[in-house]
Amino acid sequence: MAVDPLIELRDVNKYYGELHVLQDIDLTVGKGEVVVVIGPSGSGKSTLCRTINRLETIQSGLIRLDGQPLPEEGKELARLRSEVGMVFQSFNLFAHKTVLQNVSMGQVKVRGRKKDEADQRSRELLERVGLASQADKYPAQLSGGQQQRVAIARALAMDPKVMLFDEPTSALDPEMINEVLEVMQQLARDGMTMVVVTHEMGFARSAANRVVFMADGRVVEDRAPEDFFTHPESERAKDFLSKILKH
Amino acid sequence: MDVLTDNFSTFGDGFLGTVELTVYASLLALALGFVMASFRVAPVGSFRVFGAVWVAVLRNTPLTLLFFAVLLGLPRFGLVLPFEVFAVLALGCYTSAFICEALRSGINTVPTGQGEAARSLGMTFSQTLSGVVLPQAFRSVISPVGSTLIALAKNSAIAGAFSVTELLGTYKTLGELGYSIIWTFVWIALGYLIITLAISAVFNILEKRWGVAR
Ligand SMILES: Nc1ncnc2c1ncn2[C@@H]1O[C@H](COP(=O)(O)OP(=O)(O)OP(=O)(O)O)[C@@H](O)[C@H]1O
Ligand SMILES: [Mg+2]
User: Fold this and answer.
1) Rounded mean pLDDT, B98-126
2) Which of A82, A92, A140 sits opposite B117 (nearest CB)?
3) How far is it, in rounded angstroms, from Cα A15 to Cα B17?
4) A16 lines ligand 1 (CB under 6 A)
5) Residue A162 β-bridge partners
6) Which of A17, A92, A117, B131 has the greatest count of CB atoms below 10 A from its CB?
7) B113–A96: do the CB atoms touch at under 8 Å?
């Protein structure tokens, strides 16, 4: 898919003190592409995700979003972040706000929408993730799967150009994983550009255009899902797949 | 017993003086404490340093010393204000350091992930702080802030030593008039009790209304 690049990382390096967590990362994500990132624990997948909206700063290299280099901390960065939706492993809903308020808050504060307008849009999105009836509850009153779907709606409310998912189903009980994956599948079908850190192979096979395999802070493989799962090239990937595909 | 009825206006003036000092200094302390707490969690390093130095200096200086510094020091730089204003400045700045630390510990009870989620939506630092972090932090700081303001009310007694009219200072006037020192002090203590109980009551109401975490 040699389409317009939406996210570009060039020679990105990131250290935590001595630890070299991202090593010469080169990665391009095109408009409408779904890229799944997998790899062993500690390989830098979350860090990679978080550098894309500059929740983590990098020491060298270049990150461009829709052609624009990421700005320094400030108004300009905030504006750019609003175009990048992010969904976290631990949901991170605002505990003091209702479901509806969670989804509306960014629209009002960042996009400057009127409250009524924002609430209407929020209800549409909640409908889409199957939670219209939960609008007036607080996050603590919802199951994990429901909370994660609210978090997805909250991110979508900003009309982002791209969505980042960092292990969105890892904190969920098995019976709730599918309800979240279904919402993500639908998003992928609707043409959303997505970067998804996940170990859900079913999702990778059915929704991803590419699988990026990371180990020790490097991108080791970057291929079509079927190729990767059936014919991994590197020893690291073979080893990793044999471990996770056993069960 | 006569000491109260005979000198009601002296007590009254002292009582009002203490109330005024407490109210103004509290407002200053809350405002400054709020600003300093924001500085201490700001993304800009120099703000964090300023906040940390503010707290370190004011929290570790004896209040009496601070009164001397303000009342004797500021006029040397040409800043001459009524003693009452100096007293409010000294009390307010001193207490702001404690308010700042109470707020900061409240901020630390809010999971960092919520702040990250807010920032990833494109909210600025101040929007994140005011819309997500502080409303939740407030719930856990109501009671410590109440205690800090009660301490402020009692600390205001030091101002009496610097010729500000306040409650404790009335004992000198009444002592000179030959009234029983014991009864004078009993009434003074009662005056402070009224003020501190009033503060407690306000904060109990706040705690009932806002304090419960959902
Ligand atoms: N804030 C931090 N400070 C110091 N080291 C960190 C920090 N965050 C992550 N690390 C380290 O950086 C490395 C990469 O972490 P990262 O969270 O990106 O890995 P990951 O691939 O997402 O792993 P997992 O599958 O466990 O989520 C790890 O060794 C981790 O211990
Ligand atoms: Mg991770």
Assistant:
1) 94
2) A92
3) 58
4) yes
5) A84, A193
6) A92
7) no
- DSSP result, A206-243: HH-SEEEEEETTEEEEEE-HHHHHHS--SHHHHHHHHH
Q: Would strands A60-65 and A5-16 be described as parallel, antiparallel, or unpaired?
A: antiparallel
Query: A198 in ligand 1 pocket by Cβ < 6 Å?
Result: no
| Residue-level pLDDT at B1 | 61
Q: Give the pLDDT confidence of B134-153 residue by residue, as tens digits.
A: 999 988 899 999 999 999 99
Q: Do B117 and A140 touch (CB under 8 A)?
A: no
For B57, half-sphere exposure in the C-beta direction (CA atoms, 13 angstrom radius) is 11
pLDDT tens digits, A32-46: 999 999 999 999 999
Query: Which residue has its alpha carbon closest to ligand 1 atom 29?
Result: A42
Contact A217, A206 (CB under 8 A): no
User: Is B130 at the interface with chain A, CB within 8 A?
Assistant: no
pLDDT at A126: 96
Complex ipTM value = 0.92
Tell me which residue has its CA closest to atom 3 in ligand 1: A16
The letter for the amino acid at B34 is: F
The answer to whether residue B180 neighbours chain A at the CB level (below 8 Å) is: no
Q: By the 8 A CB rule, do A106 and A89 touch?
A: no
Separation of alpha carbons A112 and A122, rounded Å: 14
Find the residue in B nearest to A90 (Cα): B113
Please judge whether B214 and A53 are an interchain contact, meaning their C-beta atoms are less than 8 angstroms apart. Answer: no
Report strand pairing: A218-223 vs A19-30.
Answer: unpaired
Helices (H), chain A: 45-52, 75-81, 99-109, 115-128, 144-156, 174-189, 201-207, 225-230, 235-244
Residue pairs spanning A and B at CB distance below 8 A: 70
Q: Provide the sign of the torsion angle of the four alpha carbons B123, B125, B131, B133, taken in this order.
A: positive
A149 lines ligand 1 (CB under 6 A): no
User: Does ligand 1 have an atom closer than 6 angstroms to the CB of A41?
Assistant: yes
Tokens of B62: 């004896």
Q: Partners of B149 in the beta sheet? A: none
Which residue lies with its CA nearest to atom 2 of ligand 1? A16
- Rounded CA-CA distance A95/A76 in Å is 27
Give the pLDDT score at B71.
Answer: 85
Label residue B214 by pLDDT band (50, 70, 90): very low
Residue A28 confidence (pLDDT) above 80: yes
